[in-house]
Design goal:
Strand content of chain A: 25-35%
Largest interface: A-B, 42 and 42 residues
Radius of gyration of chain A: 22 Å
Oligomer: homodimer
Largest sheet of chain A: 6 strands, parallel
Chain lengths: 391, 391
């Protein structure tokens, strides 16, 4: 079998890791021909002749079969990926934002040009969720997928719970330890989780969901008051990315919302920077995949798996379809809403309030809210209100 | 694409489940043409014309592309599977004993006749461990695989721990609830786990290990005394199937031995009838797969995944090899050994004893034992001695 020749965009920790593994293991049959980076003046642990700042050095080289795209910028990534595909090159990418926002275009292009476009590393690092949804759970009717898919946020929630500390002070510590970005917005507001959820929903249910229609509320408004409530009930708070069908089996809602979880369950025990995904299906019952969702080695592992699958011309079949779809958001669910007393929340969002409590400073309300009402509610965007799913 | 035509051997809960799913979902493109069973007189939830007691009704039918073998008897299963392969039919099997004892023959035959031979359901039911080892962890250097792969035994250990009860009384309860067979030997003595471990080791390390060389000790000799020790240290006892490399990366030992596990770890929390497999690799770090390892639906789910993969002519590539190999069993490990005082155990098995304790009735010793010594030791087979790995 002829060697695969790779062009690498980006030489951060993951890019360098992949370069290292591939050069140390020639038997894999994959060689890195060229690496395109932004700045040539940084010192690199690889021969200088390998590098270029010109994307054309990869995209115009007919020798290169495969583009591995590992840059942060989603716009630049899209440009690179679409050009590569149009030149008949297969692509491996870890850019969840770029993928989630361009499903339809990218799938159409890769079919038209008959190339593979793989992105296991974009969702939960080394946890092989996409491959398993594509290959393993094809005939099993899925009911829901619930996942902890953002390690930074999970680390922060875990520490807030353990140390009884405010979001701000835990964030600072997490940033110092390298578990959170200097601008953590994408993670802690749930954008990153929503991108991953959108990719999961496509492979699990064959539906492409407009990203804005994923109900999303991050963790920045959560207070020690909320964690105290959770602790008293033996619960923990996790940011859960969830897609769920209705009784007829149709995809009903997609959400990234903090959720109370029994601490003695698989998701409840997914702590620190770990990721866990729970697949609920008719036949296999509950299936749980757990591992490191980010970081140099786990991400490299996922990228390498994709590269290696390409030696066998693997491509996603999208067997469940690629239909653009608006989630129905029918029915209602139980939520916990809390806010300080200097703040007034209109109770009418609730169909029915089952519990309310006030400690003189802060109030919580628990009751049933219709998904469709929640979707239009200011609660999702208001930083002074905590919202926690409570089923 | 032309429909796949299946011949089914066995119509127990799994066989019937698969027949049902396939007849309710014609879009899968798979139909059951014939079912061979032992007794025609039992009532079946399917048209009587579907059934036969004659294997030739399937094996001699050139229309049938795929044989799904779901019978208990390993000898009869081998006869069916080898005949089917020789007639150019692909095979899906759930018979771990048959597979583990005939790796070399079956792989050779299926290569020679260019058919697929798949068996995801043979290892941990719905947990997609074989597929992930084959496809996903190909380039990642694996260090060890440790799994709870027998649900009956795990259920029994869990109940012994929870209720402080003897093996005998818990077994009785488990049998009444259908969690243990009337003859539980294969499960509780670790034979079943060793069969599964042998299949795992083949796909993880590319080695075929003579079944007798897997160090094996079941759970029937464990006493409340042993569970008391575990509890005091925050540990639980699990029957762990384990294959482990040495520092040079070569497969060193395969064992199915009870093990003390921190109860706050992924394996420590794999309770009741659940299965969990922990893959330790250089890149992905720790990857954990968890789900139901047996039972009607989980097993059906795995069989259906294999059937569905055959629509795309999937076959195992055995990319890590299929070498017959004798484990080296080098080095030593820490073990806990306990026995009643009317019994004498020769201490010389230990290289070094680190702890010993006697409560007037029973003794435990903890110390380092060489794998090679353990392999030849009567401790493995003696029902009066508890052996627990203690690393």
């Amino acid at each position: 079998m002829k060697n695969i020749k790779i062009g690498l965009f980006g030489f951060g920790v993951v890019g360098e890791g992949i370069y290292k593994v591939l050069s140390q293991k020639p038997d894999i049959g994959v060689e890195v021909n060229k690496v395109v980076i932004k700045h040539l003046d940084k010192e690199r642990n690889a021969p200088i002749t390998l590098f270029s700042t010109d994307p054309a050095a990869i995209l115009d080289d007919p020798e290169i079969d495969l583009v591995v795209e590992l840059i942060d910028d989603a716009h630049a990534a899209l440009e690179i990926v679409t050009t590569a595909i149009k030149r008949g090159k297969s692509v491996v990418s870890a850019n969840k934002k770029m993928i989630a926002e361009n499903h339809t275009t990218l799938i159409k292009l890769s079919k038209e040009y008959k190339v593979s476009f793989l992105y296991e590393a974009a969702v939960c690092g080394s946890v092989p969720i996409i491959r398993n949804l594509e290959e393993y759970f094809v005939n099993d009717k899925l009911k829901s997928i619930r996942g902890i898919v953002n390690g930074s946020t999970n680390y922060i929630l875990n520490k807030m719970d353990e140390n009884n500390e405010s979001y701000e002070s835990v964030l600072k510590e997490a940033q110092e330890k390298g578990f959170a970005e200097s601008d953590p917005t994408l993670d802690v507001e749930g954008y990153d989780a929503a991108h991953k959820l959108s990719i999961i929903a496509l492979h699990a249910f064959g539906k492409i969901i407009p990203y804005e229609l994923i109900l999303r509320k991050g963790v920045t408004s959560l207070q020690p008051f909320d964690f105290k409530y959770a602790k008293e009930k033996g619960l923990v708070i996790k940011l859960i990315a969830k897609c769920k069908t209705d009784e007829s089996g149709e995809l009903n809602s997609l959400s990234v919302i903090p959720e109370f979880i029994d601490k003695n369950t698989t998701l409840g025990r997914t702590n620190l920077e770990f990721n866990g995904v729970l697949i609920e299906s008719s036949l296999a019952d509950e299936q749980f995949l757990y591992g490191k969702g980010a970081g140099r080695f786990p991400t490299s592992s996922a990228v390498l798996s994709d590269i290696s699958a390409l030696r066998y011309h693997y491509q996603y079949e999208y067997k469940k379809g690629t239909l653009e779809y608006l989630p129905k958001n029918e029915g209602l669910a139980k939520f916990y809403v809390s806010f300080n007393n200097d703040y007034v929340v209109d109770n009418s969002i609730f169909d029915k309030i089952e519990e309310q409590y006030n400690d003189g400073k802060r109030t919580y309300l628990i009751g049933m809210i219709q998904w469709q009402k929640l979707q239009k509610s200011f609660i999702l965007s208001n930083p002074n209100i905590s919202l926690i799913s409570s089923n």
